[in-house]
Amino acid sequence: MRQRIDRPRLGFAFWRAGTSLALASTLTFLPVAASPAFAFKIFGMRFFESKEEEPDVIDPVKYTLTFDAGTDDDNLKNAIESSALLKQDEGQPVSGNLGLVIKARDDRDRILAALYESARYGGVVDISINGTPIDSLPPIPQFPAGAVPVSVTVRPGPAFTFDSVTLKGDAAGRNPADYGLVHGARADSTVIIRAGEKVVADLKSQSRPLARLTDRQAIADHKTNTVDVVIAAEGGPVADLGDVKVTGTKDVDAGFVKYYSRINAGQPYSPEQLTKAADRLRQLGVFSSVTIRESDKLAPDGSLPMTIEVSEGKMRYFGAGAQISTIDGLGLQGYWGHRNLFGRAESLRIEGTINGIGEGNGVNDIGYSLGAVFAKPGAFGPASTFTASLKAAINDTDAFYATTATAAAGATFELSDFDTVSGGGEVAAMQVDDAFGDNFYLTAAIPLEYVRDTRDNKLNPTTGYRAMINAKPTYEFERSTFFSSFEASGSAYRALGAEERVVLAGRLGVGTIVGAPTLADIPAPRRFYLGGGGSVRGYGFQDISPRNSDGELVGGRSYVLASAEVRVNITETIGIVPFLDVGTVSRDALPDFSDIRAGAGVGLRYATPFGPIRLDVAVPLHRYDAGDSFGIYAGIGQAF
């Protein structure tokens, strides 16, 4: 028996023994269970929830469920049970007898869709309510009072494999294996759908915006448990981008939106570039939504008109944050910002911090900072951003006490999707009390930096790497000395397994300072130190440093830092991270590795939309005399 599966308006149709059953849900969408609304939820707990957010069920009907997935395969069983709302909502009442029947009929389609997704084209789903098959129930069913018995029995049948694969039209000549259509491989319906979508995407990548599927068939042979696939496509004409319109702007200049998107008439049509343009506009932070719509037909000149549709978000914002460590105490941050000062996404952010709360003996041991940062995207071309900042700070650490004021300005340029370069100028005045006494420094510097970033996710990467190199030539006016710092670092990430539940992460960083006759000629905040939640965990902030004869921290001219983590996702939201950090700081411009310190521990991660919440516990493997025996660090984001 051969079962033909093709794609009409809503879904695939199923022909069998002369009967026709349309499956609207099959192969066209995945059923999604709606979750109840709530005001705020974190760590599985709800806050500020009102009773109005849990509406009462009208005419509630309770049911008891007997569910047989018909398989011992855990993955298939989970897929079947996850697709059935009767199973997911077990214990919750349904609205009316008819509501129970509708839910059961929908579940049959959902389960069949799940079976198709697992290549089970011969599967059978039997559902009965109060002992009667759902297809035999009257239009207005009546069930006895009390919990209504519901039975779901699934017979998945064997998994089908691909037999013949035919690509026709403008898809002809392509290798089916490039689309996952491999003879003998399991014929999941999702693979067939993705293959058709990729054929169209490949044609569109050739600047053919009107490419479309003209046919997609999957014919199942129940005698051989195989599926024959036919996919045909039409590429349409090659076209350039045409007129670009912008809609939805209110406070943001529409011309700037077009300018910053880098979508210009006459460019070759490229879906990839359009996707990047939308992402670029979203990253400005002024829009709650960005959609780039293509016309469904070409203009008379053969170009493709485009429309950028935006919806503006709130321009003003404020917030607060915190991090805590058993060694370094509590740190608090607060900020206020405006995302669109002059109508072209210019931003201003004012922020303040308090650090070291609880670390020392009083207010005098706490550090403070207050700063303002201005940014103007597109200042020197659409791929550039100008920034300027002012900052005043009091830093009270074990290494030094410093009062600083800094003014800086510079620009960042995007060289490619992965590469950025930045440069600027900085003037700083510092009053520093450290192991070399109480000294004043006035410096002028030219910070330069190059970054290559291929990470798939900046907040929680699983693949790719980030490499950075910077230089900061500096002149100190009080002593008429010149010195330069150079730093380089790289971090890499690799996920293991098909589900990517384990991610290996590594980091290596080096730095050196050349010039300046003595270490005292370099301001203490510019010398190198290691230790703390961002470098070698298990040690206090700046605790890894050369010391003088009195045991005072003096900082160094060079450092080497290495870290390794194994990030294991236990569930979709919970992960554990064993880690090892190693570092050394030396007095000389070249590391002498005479004092290597290492910290090891394990961390807990809780995934959120704004990045993982991090809790790390570490112990120093080579503890300083009178140093801490362990450290606990909490914050947002991965350690690196």
Characteristics of this structure?
Bac_surfAg_D15, 11% helix, 34 strands, four-stranded mixed β-sheet, mainly beta, transmembrane, 6 helices, POTRA, 640 residues
Could you explain the architecture of this structure?
Helices cover 11% and strands 45% of the residues. It is mainly beta and 640 residues long. The strands form 7 sheets. It has a 17-stranded antiparallel β-sheet that branches. A 4-stranded mixed β-sheet has the order 1-13-14-12, covered by helices on one side. The chain has a 4-stranded mixed β-sheet with strand order 7-11-9-10, covered by helices on one side. Helix 1 (74-83) packs antiparallel against helix 3. The longest helix is centred in the N-terminal third of the chain and has 22 residues, at 96-117. The protein is globular. 30% of the residues are buried. Residues 6-54 have low confidence and may be disordered.
Give the helix/strand layout:
Elements: E1 2-6, E2 13-16, E3 19-22, E4 40-42, E5 45-47, E6 60-61, E7 63-68, H1 74-83, H2 85-88, E8 94-95, H3 96-117, E9 124-129, E10 132-133, E11 148-155, E12 161-169, H4 189-204, E13 212-221, E14 226-234, E15 241-247, H5 254-261, H6 271-282, E16 287-294, E17 304-312, E18 316-325, E19 329-338, E20 347-357, E21 367-377, E22 384-396, E23 401-414, E24 419-434, E25 437-445, E26 448-453, E27 464-476, E28 481-496, E29 502-515, E30 558-569, E31 574-586, E32 596-606, E33 613-620, E34 631-636
